[in-house]
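worker-3 :: picked OBP9
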Amino acid sequence: QWFANLNKSRLFAMYKFGLVCFVLAASVVLKNDAAQLTASQKSKIYGSVLSAGMECMRDFPLSLDHIQAFRNKKAPNDEVAKCFTHCLYKKLGLMDDSGKISEKTAKAATKKVFKEGDEMFTKVEELISRCIHVNDAETSDGDKGCDRAKLAFECFIEHAKELDLDVDL
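worker-3 :: tokens ->
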């Protein structure tokens, strides 16, 4: 019995570790200008992502291979990882139920952390603008949203560095 509980605890700890790693991959943070983020802003970002991620892990538990891929800024190409990403983005307000990037809800979510017109707000808005084209991409899962979430992740990673929003994993 103790051994079974230990394995469950270890498994939960592994998933929690995976979620923390994914939080780092999913959160856009200024690498070179991290001092621009206040403690309150960091807390809001990580709190939102952690809460949403824990909910998504229930339905889409990430494996260590998924975590390693995200750490390498690669979106895993399997259903669990893609659907986890969609779930997370949807809960954060970046995407709607069909996996389309929503400028309106993304802007509202960004306003919860940054003041409209601030440099970070403008950069995040530009990142969303550069990746909105994934809404028009043909996907094999239709309106399920998982394939499109993978495309959005790849786009965010690609353009974050150009905008000085490089993700520090």
